[in-house]
Specification:
Helix content is 5%, strand content 42%. By secondary structure, the protein is mostly beta strands. The chain has one domain (42-182): Jelly Rolls, CATH 2.60.120.1200. Strands 3, 4, 5, 7, 10 and 12 form a six-stranded antiparallel β-sheet that branches. Strands 6-11-8-9 form a four-stranded antiparallel β-sheet, with no helix packed on it. A two-stranded antiparallel sheet has the order 1-2. Strand 8 and strand 9 form a beta hairpin. Bound molecules: calcium ion. Residues 108-110, 114, 168, 170-171 line the site of calcium ion (CA). Residues 108-110, 114, 168, 170-171 line the site of calcium ion.
């Protein structure tokens, strides 16, 4: 029942929190919704649930945060070990986040060894087949441990980690967003 309401709120770029404690009051049942507008505090843009750039099915109730810097990632033709950083600014306390993903359009990540991604200098993001493609590009999501996120700046460091014995010359990431589902 909350899905359409949640869609309207999040499409406006607002962050809702729901208080369901009054729903079962016999004489005055209410759903209390508090909305925070992230731009009111200079926080980052939160886009609609389904930006036209993504080919992935939206996650119900999720909000998307677009990067403030670092996109596109271009690690083609660079020496093995080259790193580059994508930064997101999150207005949300990590304790309020139930699930998080790094959604991206990856280009030419041939093998999970080719790319490494480290969050906030210490938490490796597990590469899965969802973002691997030997040629061309693919949309996929990688799970992000919510506890490793911070309110404020979050950096994802991408490394061209392995050229697979000279078989590959790097990779790119054309688009990325941080996808969050609240508790
Ligand atoms: Ca490659």
């Amino acid at each position: 029942m909350y899905a359409p309401l949640n869609q309207v709120i999040t499409c406006l770029g607002w962050i809702p929190s729901y208080d369901r404690s009054k729903l079962k009051e016999a004489d005055d049942p209410r759903l209390i919704v508090r909305c925070t507008h992230p731009q009111s505090t200079g926080a980052p843009q939160i886009t609609s649930l389904d930006p036209s750039t993504s080919e992935l099915k939206p996650i119900p109730g999720a909000v998307k945060i677009t990067p403030v810097s670092g996109i596109p990632v271009n690690l083609f033709g660079k020496p093995v070990g080259t790193k580059t950083t994508v930064t997101f600014k999150s207005p949300i306390e990590p304790g309020a986040i139930a699930h998080a993903w790094l959604e991206m359009e990856a280009d030419d990540i041939d093998d999970s060894k080719e790319a490494t991604i480290v969050l906030n200098g210490k938490t490796p993001i597990e590469m899965t087949n969802d973002v691997l493609i030997p040629s061309g590009s693919v949309w996929g999501r990688l799970k992000v441990p919510a506890s490793a996120l911070a309110k404020g700046a979050n950096t994802f460091e991408f490394t061209f980690a392995d050229n697979l014995s000279g078989q590959t010359g790097g990779y790119e990431v054309h688009h990325a967003s941080l996808v969050l589902v609240m508790k």
